[in-house]
Amino acid sequence: MTETTYTPPKVWVWEQGNGGEFASINRPIAGATHDKELPIGKHPLQLYSLATPNGVKVTVLLEELLAAGHTGAEYDAWLIKIGDGDQFGSDFVEINPNSKIPALMDRSGDAPVPVFESGSILVHLAEKFGAFLPKAGAERTQVMNWLFWQMGSAPYLGGGFGHFYAYAPEKWQYPIDRFAMETKRQLDVLDQQLAKTTYIAGDSYSIADMAIWSWYGQLVLGRLYGAAEFLDVESYTNLLRWAKRIDARPAVQRGRMVNRAFGDLETQLWERHSAEDFATQTQDKLDAKDSAPD
Predict the structure, then answer these.
(1) What is the rounded distance in angstroms from the CA atom of residue 199 to the CA atom of residue 218?
(2) Lowest mean pLDDT across 4-18, 31-45, 102-116, 221-235
(3) Which residues are bridge partners to 76 per DSSP?
(4) Which H or E element spans position 73?
(5) Residue 104 in 3-state DSSP?
(6) 137-254 has which CATH code?
(7) Of the chain's two ends, which shows fewer C-beta atoms within 10 Å, N or C?
(8) pLDDT in tens, 20-46
């Protein structure tokens, strides 16, 4: 490990390739880098995403809506390979000028409605179908409190702790310690809340649970950054109980698979166009079909 004192210049200049594992897709300017049309399927809801925690939030909600009987929540999910820069294609940028997954096009009305930012997509869908978000009052406010907590807190976990612990070109103690401290503080916030409630915002399962589980639930279940032991996640007993409870839901298990292009092949469903795809279109089955003799 090397550490040197850095004196910032008067005007920052971008040094390409100086950003760790994701340097090839990070840049200090916005906008499309190339023309690329996005596919459009048969359903009114068109999702363009990848099964990162932010992507998982939305696919879990969609699968939960379908499991609850909201047939209008049928959707097409298309894989966006952020490592290849798909999020900088012209059609994607038209939906989300910020070039981040997930992005949703709701074509159920008279005119298509682009929806971006995962929290906004959750609220849009929950309000559209009247599910997993109370309509008014203190219960709704509490769900929104925790949803916005997640949106504001997770960048410290992902872009802070996750980057410096798992993805930075070198390990530096100062940023790892700084963001590990903040991550553990956030885990303690959740653990103390879940000592009082069954779900994050009270006694009912909501979009706040889906949003927070996708990041912090998967973290304590050992699925993010290989950091479970480092962060001593077993000590957050209430949080771990809740994370396992959410993880056992069939709709959550399906939602984790959608637009997943990493991990065990049987967990990867690159595209999702119907419920049957979970049984027939996972990557292990597609690979076996491709390798089968004619």
Answers:
(1) 16
(2) 4-18
(3) 46
(4) none
(5) strand
(6) 1.20.1050.10
(7) C
(8) 666 678 889 999 999 999 999 999 999
